[in-house]
Structures are given as structure tokens and as C-alpha cells.
Write a structure and sequence with these properties.
The chain is α/β, with parallel strands linked by helices. Helices cover about 35% and strands about 15% of the residues. Strands 3-4-2-5-1-6-7 form a 7-stranded mixed sheet, with helices on both faces.
């Protein structure tokens, strides 16, 4: 029996390379697995990152409007990577209770029969979209820029994860913390990593993603950095991160 592993990429702080991480992880996994990328951030940047556009008709958020998840699927730049694009202008605050809807869709549509992994790019807010994502999470990755506010945001996100698991009365997902835009020569970055290591445990830290201009430019070309012909630092770092994540998940 196949069992899809759902990996939520989340940080309530903007500018934390959340979408860059979601896009490159999904594409890296798609090199050898079937992957669904769910773009829950209405800005639609993850959709753009895999060669598509956010939808104004039917998208990932349409599952809250009665649409099946499979109706939203579209192809991407990689043959084994399927996208459920963001639904532009969806406003979660127009709805009173959306609890458990994504979990119900996963079960009813037997998503595990079609994909090995589902990567969810979440909005930088603690709302029903994030809560629905955490309800189906097998693992949560928290990307963070290593400075003071980045460390604060990791703590806030950790509390949100524990709160969600307690409320839903489900087993806590595997949680990992990913330093991004890391420069080992900057003292502040080194100190921030040490604070995270001390506060949350060294076992939760992934190897850092270094500074790479190709990562910031990948959305212009609408092609993930891990698909670049020349192996840049960002491509290598995300490859290492993906392998570390799979190892932690027992894959």
C-alpha cells in the first residue's frame, strides 16, 4: 500500500525563502518520485516557480468551495511534478469554519494512490490554510534567515505546530529547521544558528542553504534552481537538504 508523505513548508515571517524551498524540494524529489506541489499562498509564487501561473478560475483553494483537488491539477516544468496552483484573490476570512477539509479531500480522493510526496507551500499567516496544511503534515520544514527576528519566527512557528497537533489530537509531525541565505563568515548568522541549536536541538537543524544569486533569479526564468544545467551552490545545497529530509522520514 502506497502512503503519500506530506511535507509542509512554513514560516509565519515573510522573506524566509519559504517558496524557494518548496519549489526546489518538490522538483528535487520529482527527479525520482511522483510529487504534488500544493500552492496555498494566494500570491502564487510557487506556481510561477514551476513554470505556471496562479489561477483565477480553479485552484488549490477551490477545495474549500466544493471542487475536488484533482480538478485543480496541471502539469509543470517536470514530468513527475504536478501542481495545484494558487487561486488568486481567495480570501480565507470569508469563511467561518474550514477545519479538516484538506484532510477529507486527501482521504476521499485517495491522493496516496497517485503521488509519493505532497509539498505544501503555505501563506505566512496562522489561519485556516496553515491549520489545514498542518492537519495532513507528516513533516514540517521551517526555513529561516539566521538573524534575531528569524530565530523569533522559528519559535513562533514551533508553538503553532504544537498547538495544531494538540487541537487535532494527532501525532506531532517531524519538524526540521532549515537555515537559508546562510553566510558562515557573518557572526550574526553563526550566533543565530547556535541559538536555534540550543533552543530546539541540533537534531532539528538541516545543513544550511548558502547564498546563491541563481536562487533569487530562478523565478524570472520560471525554472527551479535544481534543474539548472550548471551545478551552482544553491542546487547542491537543496540536493543535500532533500536527502537529509528523506533520511529523517525513513525513506
Amino acid at each position: 500500500m502506497r502512503l503519500v508523505k506530506t511535507i509542509v513548508i512554513s514560516n509565519r515571517k515573510g522573506g524566509s525563502a519559504k517558496t524557494t524551498t518548496a519549489v526546489n524540494l518538490a522538483t528535487e524529489l520529482a527527479k525520482s518520485h511522483s510529487v504534488l506541489l500544493l500552492d496555498f499562498d494566494t500570491q502564487g509564487h510557487a506556481s510561477i516557480g514551476v513554470g505556471c501561473e496562479p489561477s483565477e478560475g480553479v485552484g488549490a483553494h477551490s477545495v474549500f468551495l466544493g471542487t475536488t483537488l484533482s480538478e485543480t491539477f496541471i502539469p509543470t516544468v517536470h514530468e513527475r511534478l504536478t501542481l495545484s496552483p494558487a487561486l488568486a484573490f481567495f480570501d480565507v476570512y470569508d469563511y467561518s469554519d474550514l477545519r479538516g477539509m484538506l484532510k477529507s479531500r486527501f482521504k476521499r480522493e485517495k491522493i496516496a494512490d497517485f503521488f509519493d510526496y505532497c509539498i505544501i507551500d503555505t501563506p505566512p499567516t496562522f489561519d485556516a490554510l496553515l491549520k489545514n496544511s498542518l492537519e495532513v503534515a507528516d513533516a514540517v520544514v521551517i526555513p529561516f534567515v539566521p538573524h534575531h527576528l528569524g530565530v523569533v519566527a522559528v519559535g513562533q512557528m514551533m508553538r503553532a505546530i504544537y498547538q495544531s497537533a494538540s487541537f487535532a489530537q494527532r501525532e506531532l509531525a517531524e519538524v526540521g529547521i532549515l537555515p537559508v541565505m546562510f553566510n558562515p563568515h557573518i557572526k550574526e548568522h553563526q550566533e543565530a544558528l547556535e541559538r536555534v541549536r540550543t533552543s530546539f536541538g541540533a537534531e532539528k537543524l538541516f545543513s544550511p542553504i548558502g547564498v546563491d544569486i541563481k536562487l533569487s533569479k530562478q523565478f524570472e526564468s520560471q525554472e527551479p534552481a535544481v534543474l539548472a544545467l550548471q551545478r551552482g551552490k544553491g542546487m547542491k545545497d537543496y540536493g543535500i537538504f532533500a536527502q537529509e529530509l528523506l533520511l529523517r522520514m525513513g525513506r
